[in-house]
Design a protein that fits this description.
The chain has 107 residues and is an all-alpha fold. It has one domain. 42% of the residues lie in helices and 0% in strands. The chain has 6 helices and no strands. The protein is flat.
Length: 107
Amino acid sequence: MPEEPTVEEQWYQMLTEGEPGLRHFKHLMRLLPSSPRCKLCNSPFKGWGGILMRWMGRDRSRYNPRFCEKCDRFENPGGAEVELTMLFADVRGSTTLAEQMSALEFG
């Protein structure tokens, strides 16, 4: 019988590959119209999609309006060390140049 992964291994998988159940749920929620939405699960708060979500217990949280009540109560503390490479560069005069160009031209 396979060994159960540790909490750190589960978080590492979620941070690097995403959580499959949440990905499918977010995709389904995208099909329901209306914004704003929960930042974690993508459940709509307004329109008929919001009415359906309230019926399912996913109303906007009273404590953090960016999340639904179920996601605001998400209690799975933990984390994982993930290797990350970042590069920050500041080219002299680039701010002045960017102000004179569109974002598409500058990028």
